[in-house]
């Protein structure tokens, strides 16, 4: 297997560092859900502004959305991270496996 050229390796490292700076943590999302879930705090953290505002004004759909989100927070964090990583890698012209 051919090692990457030095300039290519630096480009990959720069892309990885940029992703690490914007990556969301599942534990933090669940902690925010526990503390501020009824106000949509975990949704604000993940960048779902429209749903966050809806949760804020309806108190988490009177608690129903908040309870349901407990099952889906981890999946949403993975989806957000996957999307952000793909965007960053595409910006650097790197095909992500």
UniProtKB/TrEMBL annotation:
Query: Under what name is this protein listed?
Result: TM2 domain-containing protein
The reply to whether Transmembrane figures as a keyword in the UniProt entry is: yes
Give every TM2 domain span: 23-71
| UniProt keyword terms in alphabetical order | Membrane, Transmembrane, Transmembrane helix
Q: Where can this protein be found?
A: Membrane
Q: Which InterPro entries match?
A: TM2, TM2D1-3-like
Please tell me one Gene Ontology term that the record gives under cellular component: membrane
Positions of transmembrane segments: 28-46, 52-74
Q: How does it sit in the membrane?
A: Multi-pass membrane protein
């Amino acid at each position: 297997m051919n090692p990457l050229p030095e300039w290519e390796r630096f480009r990959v490292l720069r892309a990885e560092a940029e992703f690490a700076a914007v990556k969301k943590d599942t534990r933090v999302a669940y902690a925010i859900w526990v503390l501020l879930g009824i106000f949509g705090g975990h949704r604000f953290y993940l960048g779902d502004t429209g749903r966050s505002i809806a949760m804020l004004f309806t108190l988490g759909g009177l608690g129903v959305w908040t309870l349901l989100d407990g099952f889906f927070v981890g999946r949403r964090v993975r989806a957000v991270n996957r999307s952000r990583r793909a965007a960053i890698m595409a910006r650097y012209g790197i095909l992500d496996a």
